[in-house]
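Work Package 4 report. The design task specified in the project plan requires that, given a folded chain encoded as structure tokens, an amino acid be chosen for each position. We show below one input record used in the internal validation round.
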């Protein structure tokens, strides 16, 4: 026993009854019954109920003490009466009869209560994050995060991966998100960058002759916040392997994720063999390369139907002739849904910036027909073709959208989720993983019309390297892959390009000459010239994994000290101004935009 406690607040049980003990913690709750005062004492491990009667000399002082004050309680363990047993806590059969107490830390008036998980404004929660972290749900989330990271480390060690740490101060990268820059005092006018990921370093580790590397790596990107993305920094399980093909990476990651999700969640895995979906198929069937496979709805392309003479839906027909496409979503057995259900989805689509979603329901009296605002524009034969293309049956409904491909993918992806949620089609007690594969090596920049890398510039193109048609760069596929769970991208990865001549060629397509590649990627290109093994890897996001396991919708709920939406730390007042002497030492001066 140390001077503060003989036991934690989750340790005492019926077999401790009669013992004199000492426990310390925060006052979670007080219940004053006049002649009796009940105090729930909380520490990192749990809660123990303590009781004191008005005859005790400490009664009045304890009665006045503020919630969340830190106290040490000395007393005896006693049984609770049958009617007061609390089955919701592990110490619920006993309580502490207080003999003495000591105030270890006083508490001012609280800006927010701690004993409840009630939602509070982000500004209050982040400014007083140390109070927020005392609350049960988020406290348990952070403990879960620690356990998940420890488990992942042990799993990686068990299969022969070595953990190394890569530099935090490095060079700026011309690809990806914005860098966080750090001025160099010893090299005036020059800057380090915080790593967006340890990409180049982990490849250099493979070139150095190490076979399997991993680390729980901090990454820094100057990006806007989203529900599944923290502004500023995040952590990922960064791993790389030598002498591997794509399938070897998949085997390691699938096993790791299956073991992790089984250990830390009771939810069912829909499949322990993750489906492989090509990037092109994902966009065609789900409108997104981050599909939620718990959702059974599929998007179908029925553009050809609108070339028929017996379809008189002129608005869509004109758009199709000018190059637009028509895609649809079939909902099963929705013929009895009220008109308001369909109209609300059409209204929602317009609010999302589209022209709306047309709809009709298939029915059959003497022959197949369509009921709904646009049903009259379709002949029996055209409806039969739609049914054949989509698998729709009598009694099903069909939502239609017409636009250019990119806008169609956007609105049908959103509509797929919206309709599935409205129809309660998603099983929230499951995890559905999949691999998205066969990413294009390049894409065309919509604003500049130039060719650029679509994913990772260090990836290996697919196919026989001697037969790749570099004159058609948009047709080149890469050994790049993402892993997705429940519509959330967990990670990106690739088999790397380890051939310098090929790297120069691919970068030239994206507009970089040899000199620029040598300047920007000098460490990488030089290293690859001294004998590099084939290698590949991936980097699942720790924050997103824990977010899924904790059943949270916002990554802030599993991050200990997150920033707000404007990338500000309200608790530590960062970013902050620096004084002139600091700027002078760094050879910097500020010229702020008006």
């Amino acid at each position: 026993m140390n001077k503060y406690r003989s036991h934690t607040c989750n340790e005492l049980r019926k077999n401790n009854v009669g013992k004199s003990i000492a426990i310390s913690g925060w006052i979670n709750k007080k219940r004053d019954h006049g002649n009796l005062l009940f105090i729930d004492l909380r520490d990192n491990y749990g809660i123990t109920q303590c009781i004191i009667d008005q005859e005790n000399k400490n009664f009045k002082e304890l009665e006045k003490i503020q919630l969340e004050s830190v106290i040490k309680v000395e007393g005896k363990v006693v049984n609770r009466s049958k009617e007061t047993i609390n089955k919701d806590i592990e110490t619920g059969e006993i309580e502490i009869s207080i003999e003495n107490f000591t105030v270890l830390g006083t508490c001012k008036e609280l800006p927010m209560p701690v004993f409840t998980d009630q939602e509070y404004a982000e500004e209050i929660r982040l400014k007083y994050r140390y109070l927020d972290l005392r609350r049960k749900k988020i406290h348990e989330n952070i403990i879960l995060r620690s356990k998940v990271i420890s488990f992942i480390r042990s799993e990686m060690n068990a299969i022969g991966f070595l953990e190394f740490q890569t530099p935090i101060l490095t060079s700026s990268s011309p690809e990806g998100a914005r860098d966080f820059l750090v001025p160099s005092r010893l090299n005036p006018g020059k800057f380090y960058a915080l790593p967006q990921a340890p990409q180049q370093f982990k490849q250099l580790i493979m070139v150095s002759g190490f076979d399997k590397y991993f680390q729980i790596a901090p990454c820094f990107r100057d990006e806007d916040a989203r529900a599944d993305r923290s502004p500023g920094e995040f952590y990922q399980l960064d791993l790389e392997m030598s002498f591997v093909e794509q399938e070897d990476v998949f085997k390691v990651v699938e096993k790791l994720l299956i073991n992790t999700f089984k250990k830390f969640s009771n939810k069912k895995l829909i499949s322990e063999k993750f489906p492989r979906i090509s990037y092109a198929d994902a966009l065609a069937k789900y409108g997104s390369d981050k599909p939620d496979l718990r959702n059974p709805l599929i998007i179908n392309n029925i553009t050809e139907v609108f070339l028929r003479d017996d379809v008189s839906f002129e608005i869509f027909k004109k758009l199709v002739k000018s190059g637009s496409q028509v895609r649809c979503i079939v909902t099963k057995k929705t013929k009895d849904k009220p008109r308001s259900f369909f109209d609300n989805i059409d209204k929602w689509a317009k609010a999302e910036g589209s022209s709306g979603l047309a709809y009709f329901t298939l029915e059959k009296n003497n022959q197949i027909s369509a009921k709904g605002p646009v049903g009259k524009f379709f002949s029996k034969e055209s409806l039969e073709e739609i049914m054949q293309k989509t698998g729709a049956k009598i009694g099903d409904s069909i939502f239609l959208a017409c636009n250019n491909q990119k806008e169609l993918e956007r609105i049908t992806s959103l509509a797929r989720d919206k309709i599935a949620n409205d129809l309660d089609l998603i099983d929230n007690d499951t995890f559905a993983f999949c691999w998205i594969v066969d990413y294009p090596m390049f894409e065309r920049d919509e604003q500049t019309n130039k060719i650029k890398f679509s994913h990772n510039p260090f990836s290996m193109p697919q196919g026989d390297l001697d037969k790749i048609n570099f004159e058609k760069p948009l047709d080149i596929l890469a050994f790049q892959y993402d892993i997705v769970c429940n519509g959330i991208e967990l990670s990106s990865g690739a088999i790397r390009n380890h051939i310098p001549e090929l790297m120069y060629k691919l970068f030239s397509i994206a507009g970089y000459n040899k000199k620029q590649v040598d300047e920007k990627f000098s460490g990488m290109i030089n290293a690859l010239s001294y004998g590099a093994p084939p290698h590949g890897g991936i980097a699942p996001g720790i924050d997103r994994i824990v977010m899924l396991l904790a059943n949270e919708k916002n990554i802030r709920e599993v991050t200990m000290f997150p920033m707000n939406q404007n990338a500000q730390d309200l608790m530590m007042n960062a970013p902050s101004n620096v004084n002139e002497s600091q700027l002078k030492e760094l050879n910097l001066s500020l010229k702020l935009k008006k």
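The mean pLDDT is 95. Validation will be extended to a larger panel in the next phase.
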